[in-house]
Amino acid sequence: MNDEPPFYGDQIQGDRNYQEDSFSIKVFGNETLLLLCDGMGGHVAGKQASSLAVEEFVQGFSQHIDSPSYKRLETGLTMANSAIQQKVSQSAELKGMGTTLVAVHLSGDTIYWVSVGDSPLWLVRENKIQRLNADHSLAGVFKKLVEQGQMTAQDAANDPKRHALLSSVSGDEIKHVDLRESAFELLKGDCLLLASDGLETLSDEDIIRLVAGNDKPKKTVALLLDAVTTYQKPQQDNATVMVYRHGMPSGKTSKFSFFTSSVSMLLSMFLVAVLLILGAWQW
């Protein structure tokens, strides 16, 4: 019996003396919301931005439960951005604060997502890794230039501006949003990873190897974060990762199965007792 849920998340600070990442896992009946924000703006502002965005997004998403998934995700993003705008207007010290955001709505065998910024949503399927969401940073632009032969891969990897964001949740009009409006189908065994860019210390090959070597989300998360720590990258950024393994039986399902089988056994024992009493009475 497997008592572990099919999703888990955790984080490390890296070489920073503060944590700007925030994440949340919310279960609504048979649906699950995975949400991760990587704040920017320094010690105080970055953490406030990511925490506030997570809180307000969940509230917005929870409203209008009969609306299509993408509309609920869109509402969550709008509320998160408006909350940051209001916060910045109340304090000049918080000007410039903002956050990336990536959210996934899981329902049955399908997912929808919304993202702003460079926090990746990866799919690992059959030992291959694919980024599902758009990269709203110069790194994404550089990648296209490399594919077109207009820039070398080495120059793209070493450019100090590669992490500059083209879009963020900062209270202003959001320039770029990746909103999945049609269902994306998952297959049994698929592994989803939501992460802050601090996890990109690991190569695609590292991630595939660690994901393929373990089907337990909690253990997978620990292996990924331990690997980041082991690399000892100078000025390692905060790293947060959330893992969801599709088709993995949850603890709730296992306990429910145990409960139903226990009830069946009790009913059988009761019927046997009744038959014995009736037999003795007739005798």
UniProtKB/TrEMBL annotation:
Domain PPM-type phosphatase: start-end pairs: 6-246
Protein name, as recorded: Protein phosphatase
Keywords attached to this entry: Hydrolase, Membrane, Transmembrane, Transmembrane helix
UniProt GO molecular function: protein serine/threonine phosphatase activity
Pfam families named among the record's database cross-references: PP2C_2
Keyword Phosphoprotein attributed: no
Record-listed E.C. numbers: 3.1.3.16
Domain of life according to the entry: Bacteria
Chain ranges passing through the membrane: 256-281
